[in-house]
Amino acid sequence: FPLPVLIFEMDTTQESYLDLFPVDAVVYLTPDSENVLEDIDANKVYILGGLVDESIHKKLTLQRAQEQAVQTARLPIREYMVKSTSSRNYHSETLAINQVFDVLSTYYKTRSWPAALKAGVSAGKGYVLPDTVK
Fold first, then answer.
1. 101 class by beta-carbon count within 10 Å (0-12 exposed, 13-18 middle, 19+ buried)
2. pTM of the model as a whole
3. CA nearest 81: which of 38, 125, 47?
4. Which of 11, 19, 39, 53 is catalytic?
5. Which residues contact 57 (CB under 8 A, 6 or more apart)?
6. Which of 62, 71, 111, 121 falls 20 to 30 Å from 49 in CA-CA distance?
7. Residues 6+ apart with CB under 8 A from 52
8. pLDDT > 80? residue 5
9. Residue 105: helix, strand or coil by DSSP?
10. In the annotation, is 53 catalytic?
11. DSSP symbol at 32
12. Class at the top of the CATH hierarchy for domain 17-128
């Protein structure tokens, strides 16, 4: 059967996502969450890059979500990928907004986390799929 057609609508506003959506519909994606994103729920609103900064502040997004009583989740990088043995890599699960978007949109189309993670997690992050380890 045919794959679903993805249509993304984008709008900008000064309003908070908490003013636009019910708190129980919001999932804040943060690499510091203990909750693993296992599937995408079409009834949820996923916050990508809710805080944009020039440097990475550990647990800042998790803290923000907890303060707002918003659900959190992280991409299943540790569950599907392994650390590369290359000494050039520093093993980071923190991705740019476009990388997270690529992962989520590929997962939505394929329903395959390995395919999705391969599409969005660059080798420079220090993680690879197990079948690519030499």
1. middle
2. 0.83
3. 125
4. 53
5. none
6. 111
7. 97
8. no
9. helix
10. yes
11. T
12. alpha beta
